[in-house]
Structure formats: structure tokens, C-alpha cells
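Sequence, please.
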């Protein structure tokens, strides 16, 4: 099932210095994103009873999705990532690739959080056609520094120096380029929803977070230790306080089948529901 991944991708997904701190250092965008996805589905009068989470990693996104569904399957190519997942009675984890999904049934909602950019789009869209229900929705999102990864000097050092010395080792196209390969006779982009979160980072968590990026895959432990010391030293130099609020933002893109007859009526239903809630609120104030 993981044969479609390149050697570099498999290496990235298995490095211990990436896998071990992944849960504790990555920003918790998943709850916020899941609630925005749920709101979008609500406006279409869709109840997500069966969800597929593709490229689920350690299962943080899968756990958030389990709060809105009775059944979630998380698919991830790396056993090392899956070994760090959180157990939940409504979640089943399976090893497999996005281009050869190890599932036979269809789903109301298919999600790719922080992973879609690493897929082979044309092969994944063939699989999406196979597993997405007629009125189902595919939602994908990622996140990035919101521009304050603390200050201009630190950002300049990260991008202009550190990331220049250690460029990304896993090629990714970006969500919009991947969506540009949608087969328009089958799928269409039907919406986007921005989001933003702010989390507190101390210098060690920030350094560990930076080192979970694919730029640093395949490095030996002594090199990682030296890089962490370098990052911590730079952060101490540029941060005025030992803890800093770091902003992350992104956008969720929603995809439906071109023949999905629920999109326009669903949006009208969602508008009607919002007007009803507004009417109730006005009545309460009077």
C-alpha cells in the first residue's frame, strides 16, 4: 500500500525526531478546522456519519473528526506515525497510501489535513471518485506561520538561512496547484473557509516544532542536537520573552462532485437556517 510513496517521503514519515515530538509541538488546528467543516456540512444538510481521514499522521485530525461522527477511519502510510496515535472507540486506523486507499466502502466526508500537498493528485482523485458518496464532501487544509513567527529578524533567519541550508526534502505542490488538477467532469471546488489560531510556544517547543519539518528528515541524531541548540540560541536572541504567542493560519477548501445536486439547495437551506436562528435571537431580545 505504500509503494506509491517515494523513498524520501517514506524517510520523512519515519524519522524519530519528527514522529516523537509531532503531537506535542504541532499547533492544534484540528478542532478549529473540524468545527468549520461541520458548519459547512450543516449548511448543506449533510450529517457526516462515516468519515475517511487520509494521511492522518499520528491521528490528531482523526481524533477531532471522531467528535462529529460515529465512525472514522484514519489512513496513514507510516507505521511509526500510527504507533503514536490516540485510541478512540469510534476510530479505526489502517496503513495505506492516498493513491491506493485500503477501504472498500464509501464516505460522507473525506478529509486530508496537512497531507494533501504530498499526494499524487491524479491518482488520489481516482481513489476519491471511488470512495466519496454521491452527495459527499472532500475537505482539505493546511496551516502556516501567520507572519509573526515572532519577529522579522527571526523569520528572516529561518527562511533565508536555516531553510536555505536545509531545503524541503519532500516535494509538494501546494493545495491550489493540486486542486487545479481536479477532473472537472467529476469534481468541483465549492467553497473555501479561512481560519486562524494562536498558540503559546516556549523556545524548546518552538525548536522541536521547526525540526519536525521535512527539511530535517534523514539527519543523524548529533546533527539534530546541534541544530536544536542553534535554533534555541537564535530564538533566545530574538524573543523578548521566554514564551511567545505564535499565529498560524490557513484555509479549508471544499470539493464536491460536479453532479452533486445538494450544493445549491443545501446553501439555500443553510441560509434559511441562519435566518431562523437570527429571528429567534431578535425575538429573545424583545
Amino acid at each position: 500500500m505504500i509503494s506509491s510513496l517515494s523513498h524520501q517521503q517514506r524517510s520523512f514519515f519515519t524519522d524519530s525526531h519528527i514522529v516523537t515530538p509531532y503531537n506535542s509541538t504541532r499547533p492544534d488546528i484540528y478542532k478549529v478546522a473540524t468545527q468549520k467543516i461541520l458548519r459547512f456540512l450543516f449548511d448543506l444538510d449533510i450529517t457526516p456519519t462515516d468519515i475517511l481521514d487520509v494521511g492522518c499522521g499520528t491521528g490528531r485530525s482523526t481524533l477531532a473528526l471522531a467528535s462529529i461522527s460515529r465512525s472514522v477511519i484514519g489512513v496513514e502510510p507510516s507505521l511509526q506515525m500510527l504507533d503514536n496515535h490516540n485510541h478512540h472507540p469510534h476510530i479505526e486506523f489502517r496503513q495505506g497510501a492516498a493513491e491506493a486507499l485500503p477501504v472498500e466502502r464509501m464516505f460522507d466526508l473525506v478529509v486530508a489535513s496537512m497531507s494533501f500537498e504530498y499526494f499524487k493528485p491524479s491518482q488520489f482523485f481516482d481513489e476519491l471518485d471511488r470512495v466519496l458518496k454521491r452527495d459527499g464532501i472532500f475537505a482539505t487544509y493546511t496551516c502556516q506561520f501567520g507572519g509573526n513567527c515572532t519577529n522579522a529578524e527571526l523569520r528572516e533567519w529561518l527562511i533565508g538561512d536555516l531553510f536555505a541550508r536545509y531545503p524541503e526534502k519532500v516535494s509538494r505542490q501546494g493545495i491550489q496547484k493540486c486542486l487545479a488538477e481536479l477532473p472537472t467532469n467529476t469534481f468541483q471546488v465549492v467553497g473555501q473557509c479561512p481560519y486562524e489560531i494562536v498558540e503559546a510556544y516556549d523556545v524548546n517547543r518552538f525548536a522541536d516544532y521547526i525540526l519536525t519539518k521535512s527539511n530535517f528528515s534523514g539527519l543523524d541524531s548529533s546533527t539534530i542536537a546541534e541544530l536544536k541548540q542553534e535554533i534555541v540560541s537564535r530564538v533566545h536572541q530574538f524573543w523578548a520573552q521566554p514564551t511567545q504567542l505564535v499565529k498560524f493560519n490557513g484555509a479549508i477548501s471544499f470539493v464536491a462532485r460536479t453532479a452533486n445536486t445538494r450544493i445549491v439547495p443545501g446553501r439555500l437551506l443553510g441560509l434559511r437556517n441562519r435566518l431562523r436562528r437570527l429571528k429567534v435571537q431578535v425575538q429573545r431580545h424583545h
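Strands lie at 50-54, 71-76, 91-95, 107-113, 132-141, 144-145, 187-202, 243-257.
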